[in-house]
Design goal:
InterPro entries: PLAC_motif_containing. About 65% of the residues lie in helices and about 0% in strands. The chain contains 6 helices and no strands.
């Protein structure tokens, strides 16, 4: 069953996380590769090189569109009616990569907090004394 979520920022909220914004703008292919790895386990380096190579042919939006669709489906994210996936990845790719990275970062933080809460509430294991038979 797919959970339903909302994006944790609009497509153009890049400056909500300046580190991700700068990385997405100057190292877009690398950030795309990292996102792809988190989305479905794709090889980070391969996706980085693929995106970077296709960027020179103005075709980088194709793998980006594909991965963004998988991300939305996996987490039950809505498609923006004002800027659907195809135009977002074709014309606003750095912003879309950053939006995806911010969402994935938030998911990782949520998962880390959930694990920490579960572990911190666990009962300690104590050794039982052995009995003689």
């Amino acid at each position: 069953m797919t959970e339903h979520n909302e994006w944790n920022g609009s497509l153009f909220a890049c400056f909500d996380d300046c580190d991700t914004c700068l990385y997405g703008y100057y190292g877009g292919p690398c950030l795309f590769g990292q996102n792809a790895e988190k989305i479905d386990g794709s090889n980070c380096c391969f996706m980085c090189v693929l995106y970077g190579t296709l960027n020179y042919l103005w075709l980088c939006w194709i793998p980006h569109y594909w991965k963004r669709s998988i991300l939305r489906q996996k987490y039950g994210l809505p498609q923006d009616p004002n800027c659907p996936d195809c135009p977002a990845t074709a014309f606003c790719s750095p912003c879309a990569i950053c939006q995806e990275a911010r969402f994935l970062k938030q998911q990782e933080q949520n998962n880390t907090n959930a694990v920490y809460t579960t572990v911190s509430g666990a009962m300690p294991i104590t050794n039982q004394p052995r009995t003689a038979h």
